[in-house]
Here is the input.
Amino acid sequence: MSMSQVTSESKIPEQIAWNKPKRSPAKIVGTVIGYSGMLVVSVFTLLPFFWMITSSLKSNNEIYSIPIKWFPSTWHWENYIHIWTQADMSTWLLNTIFFSVVVTLLQVFTGSFAAYGFSKIRFRGRNALFLIYIATMAVPWQAYMIPQFKMLSSLGLSDTRWSIVLLQAFGAFGVFMMKQFYDSIPEELSEAARLDGLSEFGIYRRIILPLSGSSIAALAIITFTNTWNDYMGPLIYLRSQNLYTIQLGLKLFISQYSADFAMIMTGSVLSVLPILVVFLIGQNQFIEGIATSGMKG
Amino acid sequence: MGEVAEPKTSSNARNGNSHRKSGDGAVVEAKAISRRNLRNGLLFIAPNFLGFMFLILGPVIALFYIAFTRWSAFGDPKFTGTHNWVRLAHDKIFWASFWNTFYYSVVHIPLTLIIAFALAVLLNSKLKGRTFFRTVAFFPYITSIVAAAQVWSMLFDPKSGPINMFLRLFISNPPNWLGSTAWAMPAVIIVATWREVGYYMILLLAGLQTIPGELYEAAQLDGANGWQRFWHVTVPSMRPTLFFVIVTLTIGSFKILDLTLVMTDGGPGTSTLVLAQYVYRVAFDRSDFGYASTVSLVLFAVCMVVTLIQFWYNNRKAD
Amino acid sequence: MKLHQAYKPLATAAVLAVLLSGCGGGSGSGGSQSSSNETLDKNVKASISMAGWSLDMTPEFKTLVDGFEKEHPNIKINIKQYSADDYDKQLTADISSGSQPDVFPIKSLQKYYVYSQSKGMADLSDIAKGYEGDKNIDVSQYKMDDGKYYALPYRADAWVLFYNKDMFKKAGVSEPDGTWTWDDYTKAAEQLKQKLPEAGYDANSVYPIYQHTWQSVVQAFAQAQSGKEPKDNFFKGDYSYLKSYYKRALKWQDEKLTIDWNTASTNKVQYQPQFGTEKAAMMPMGTWYAAVLVEQQKNGQANKFEWGLAPVPQNPEVRNKSSKPITFGDPTGLAISSKTKGDQLKAAKEFVKWCAGEGGSKALANISTTPAYFSKSVTDVFFKVDGMAKDQLSEKTWRVHDTRPENPVGAATDTIQNVLKDTHSSIMTETKKVGPALDEAASNIKDQGVLDE
Here is the structure.
């Protein structure tokens, strides 16, 4: 298992093959093979994305053709202009940004808060309550979305911004994820802080939160991506055009009988870019080896 | 958010550990602590729980009732007792989708877990260009699923696809992939794994980051080799994260829907029809929300059994 | 008792949810507002909402609304955008919570049947009566067992055979004459297969016919042309009438007369470019494709060639007793919410009546959309459109046919359709033989327990 080799070595930088000042030819060959292997895998991984981009520049009838066409016969840059002028992309973008940001903030905030309760405070019924959270994840949404819709609708919330925010922000996922990350933070840290007379909220804010940068980043990336890409939620809840999200807008924009696939691909490319930005910002939080030792004081 | 419960005395600060003490004072004290913990615990949970209860738990509980009714989404559900359940037992399509889901999960879960874990460990190292490779690994998850399905269909094409061209170097009769009942599911599993590895890699990466570096240093001093350090430092420290990833991966696999919908629509025949898609069909194609809820409950029960086993195993290991 | 506190909210939620799922939608009456044959006063202003889809790309809704508002300046109609693909999901949610728009389209007869059980649609029998004796329009498909109507058609698409006249001429094969059976169709396809390459068409990518992947392309023709009533085969659990249709469909793909189903399905082949870019000489398709073809030939997405409409081929085994060719196709209708009352109800009824009649139909024919009202003047408008097929056969094909519902309508329909969909893919991928696959379908449908109901 060469993977584990890499892990453990990675913790002691001097031993990493590619960081070593003196290299044996065998290791250089190994490194070259390793990197070329990874590059091949990367190409394979990126191929569908590449096809998505070139398809956005094709004419509609060229996209689904046999055999598959990798490059357009003529480059249709006007697809991008068309979508900006014909479709209401700027409204959709703003709405989607609003939903994704608000949902991500709520999910991270309430999720990490509840997770602290589940992870660091022992109270009766904790496990049962937590299991109920997980249990709801096991129910397919399409089965209960009509009862849920009727409920929100009877409160007058369907076709409002609130519906999408409420729908997405309180899922069990964030609580579960953050709880598990808090579980891996040694109990002694919070115990010691309690002995020092810190309140529970103080422990959460001063001890636990500063340690959870990478997990909050992971939760934020995933929540943001999922909210951004959600189609069914907005489909069922939103009817007013000024509330449309990107996924909903694109799908409603295309025509029923001459399905405009070039436009779908153009929209998909445009809608992926913001996610990439969030991903790149978020992954800056993944810095190797944050030391919990410093906190033990 | 106000400060929660400032503990003043040092004995209070000992938190939950004090119930082991005997004597009247200790019992009273333990009760006080337990009450305070309950209050604090609920206060922390409240902001999320209130939303969760009304928006998710409520409708989910309603589903438990609807599963015993006939309901077309209009008007009131009509209670039919065990009618749906009897029907379920004789429904061959349900059983086909049940076993398909099982097949998918049993292969997809370990495959994804191993690759994602290996990738996370690799990309947690000081590898040059790791930012680039991490981003690359996440790409499949954000690529439009329609585009992904299209390119993979081309790759899997029995006659002209590169996968079979490669296989023909070794075997004369490569599989018909999406056009065959035996090979459609493996093809779906391959694409699902390709798509989800980056997603779970991110979660595992976040977990790896919480492992204190000095644990490795200590293991190093004890003379542990790389493999031993992986098993005795990385894996135990990752237990909470692994539990989370395995449970979400399990539930996610049992609930797989969008990929089969786009790639095969359940076919050929029912060979890639999965439970969630069956629920979807029964609910929206047939407007039979009662029976769809019944099928959902089976899906729910399977997920819960697997989750509870993991829960129990995890708690036992953690103690 | 602490436990009690923790679970109290749960119990409350449970009760609440059950209560809520019970109330809400469907409480509207059947909507027998029989007082409203009287029309809306010209001086009373009314504003109603209406559902539509793909508004920027599909002009039909805007055309109808503009045409109507011009004649009725006191009525204002606001179109709400719904999804073309997932319209019925949205409408199901709407009706279940009682928030459907005043006027909404009904995409298929089967869904009409489902919604008619919801009490979400107003009774439109009074308007329908006005059209009942009219030879130019068929409203009977919306008549329920109790004699009531809850929707009226505004579009009446039917399946016809699109064919490329240029390809036939170049290959020297004789064009459809309006009397074809499926055997004649096969014969013509075989001739084209031989002669198209000689006429300079690429043998690898050009096929004589294109059979789209939908189950209706085989099953709905078989049902409509079976010579039996649905209650004697479809609802009885006897699907042997599909056998000869599947045998032919398999023969076509085995002889490479069409792209094989598996390739078309996994590659998501679209039918518009297949016919539009001359990759197929013949294609059975709904008349809605005429509008798309006209548009695509104009904007260059389709090649320029001469094309025509012919009746779909008939069953060679069962002689058609009527004088009209038998095909299938669901009308698209308009329904009114049972929640709509007063002036708005009057305005909505006026609109629905107008859309079904000559006024709405002319407006639609002008944008090459097949309307519900086939009078002489509507037909003229339709065929006067620039780029439309011009010959006599096309006109007769478009106007005269015996159209059956795409799916026989009933409580069991959706379940049967669902099972037959899997059967379709089993047979067409040739992973199961026709006979055993149909037997299995029959047994699976029986297990669902829907046939007796």
User: Anything to note?
Assistant: Residues 24-66 of chain B form the longest helix (43 residues). Chain B touches chain A through 124 residues (CB under 8 Å). Strands of chain B lie at 69-70, 78-79. The CA atoms of residues 153 and 193 of chain B lie 15 Å apart.
